[in-house]
Design a protein that fits this description.
two-stranded antiparallel ribbon; alpha+beta; about 130 residues
Length: about 130
């Protein structure tokens, strides 16, 4: 009667092939996940900008004139509480809610731009800015 099974050499060969596959697959999967998070992050910032634009549309007389001070909208106090942005919006890079986000509405020579700041630092500049 002949024994059927795998030898230690065959088992090691399979393990080596699996290890090689993992060294190829893990970095690719990590890159895909990171790119997806970055894309979603940018999409969330665009949602915040669109909420600010909706706010501006309903408060058109509050918008700054050319040369006036910037109108600053707080994400939580102005946009979420008034329903312009979804209350469950989170930062996909951290998995936490956005903190200390403000949208600066600026009138640049008659063109309204919406820049997004976090903790006083510019994190996303409006693409529609005048060059």
């Amino acid at each position: 009667m002949k024994q059927r099974g795998i030898t230690l050499i065959e088992m090691l060969g399979v393990m080596i092939i699996l290890a090689l596959l993992m060294t190829l697959i893990v970095p690719i999967a990590t890159t895909i996940i990171d790119n997806s998070k970055e894309s979603l992050y940018n999409q969330q910032l665009e949602n915040i900008r669109n909420g600010a634009k909706s706010y501006a549309g309903e408060h058109i007389f509050d918008l700054p004139d050319v040369g006036e001070e910037t109108l600053i909208l707080n994400l939580n106090d102005d946009l979420i509480k008034n329903g312009y942005v979804d209350k469950d919006i989170t930062n996909p890079l951290t998995g936490e809610p956005f903190n200390n986000i403000e949208v600066y509405i600026i009138n640049e020579n008659g063109k309204i731009v919406y820049d997004i700041y976090e903790n006083g630092n510019l994190i996303n500049q409006d693409d529609n800015r005048i060059s």
